[in-house]
Amino acid sequence: MGRAKSMVSLLLVLFLVRAHVATTETTTEFIFHGFKGNQSEIHMQGDSTITSNGLLRLTDRNSDVVGTAFYHKPVRLLDSNSTNTTVRSFSTSFIFIIPSSSTSNGGFGFTFTLSPTPNRTDADPEQYMGLLNERNDGNSSNHVFAVEFDTVQGFKDGTNRIGNHIGLNFNSLSSDVQEPVAYFNNNDSQKEEFQLVSGEPIQVFLDYHGPTKTLNLTVYPTRLGYKPRIPLISREVPKLSDIVVDEMFVGFTAATGRHGQSSAHYVMGWSFASGGEHPLAAMLDISQLPPPPPNKAKKRGYNADWVMELQASGEILSAIDPRLGSGYDEGEARLALAVGLLCCHHKPESRPPMRMVLRYLNRDEDVPEIHDNWGYSDSSRTDLGSKLVGYISSDRASSSHSHTSSSLTRISSTSLISGR
């Protein structure tokens, strides 16, 4: 009898120990205020590295490269019983930086990813973000979920995505859900768009609630100083239960492209939590993060030579202040930038007088073509020369104010009232 009791007691102890270990294994929490000294905890491949000051750099600005970085241990994200399978709740937050470029929009972006493996060696650069490739994109056997932070237009001939957006992707780089990058202002609940490629720290909160299958995503520049109350994306994502396997790796993938479409992608800090009823990723203390990389575009500044380069390559809209988001008319923006280039011409005698500027802005005259050597095209040169002589003479001879007032009124009614 005594021996039987001992056996029961031993079995009970083993059961309790087993239960404790299982509970520990199904709960994952970590926080990285920078990654210096944590190399053993981050599984990196491709272009990824940890810089000397502790930034996790997914890619540098080399063309056509891929970089991946995953937490070194798998995370248990699936609960199964005899009746159903449920994806466990999880929460993550991270702060990233994509330095702006003085010569291009950069590219291609990065993803936060749930993957069955940390080895994405078959993944392609450019629009495949270091996550998938042309052959397996869309396959149900991929078992990948990704939140993409996309900076370049062009997936599947541009029919699926626009640049500077955030998308929710299930086994594919074609987004099921996508939104322009923005946050909701707490004061008036207005959506404020901003640029991913800006060189400023940007924070992300991603929370998934298993019982309701609801995903909430909030993104905002850290200069805002607070987390917006309203998430940018709040959706039920039942597809996730078809994606997730028992254990998944959590991490990041990034890629660059060709022809100047390349950006460095950095993660400054990262926290994650899963398991329990309401896991909440630990708050990142910005004061403990490593310093951001230098933003070379800000040092160079927005100058006429750079805008001229963009005009010559057909990308003049890249010169627009990213803080405007998408709140401008592209036609008027092109016109204003073209006229601005004329007014900054290297040769003072080639700069149009104010009356000519007003006629350009009112579309009474076509803006002459400027080549990248700051010379007008042959057809424009002759036409412009005669008009400039006429308008300069007219400006000097006339003291009338009525025409200028009329032109200013027309500009105001077509542009200024609409906020441009």
Task: Please describe what this structure looks like.
- This protein has 420 residues and is of the alpha+beta class.
- It folds into two domains: 28-299, Jelly Rolls (Sandwich), CATH 2.60.120.200; 302-416, Transferase(Phosphotransferase) domain 1 (Transferase(Phosphotransferase), domain 1).
- Helix content is 24%, strand content 25%.
- Strands 1, 3, 4, 9, 16, 17, 18 and 20 form an eight-stranded antiparallel sheet that branches. Strands 2, 5, 6, 10, 11, 12, 13 and 19 form an eight-stranded antiparallel sheet that branches.
- A hairpin with a 6-residue loop joins strand 12 and strand 13 (177-180).
- The chain is elongated and about 80 Å long.
- The model is unreliable at 10-24 and 376-420 (pLDDT under 50).
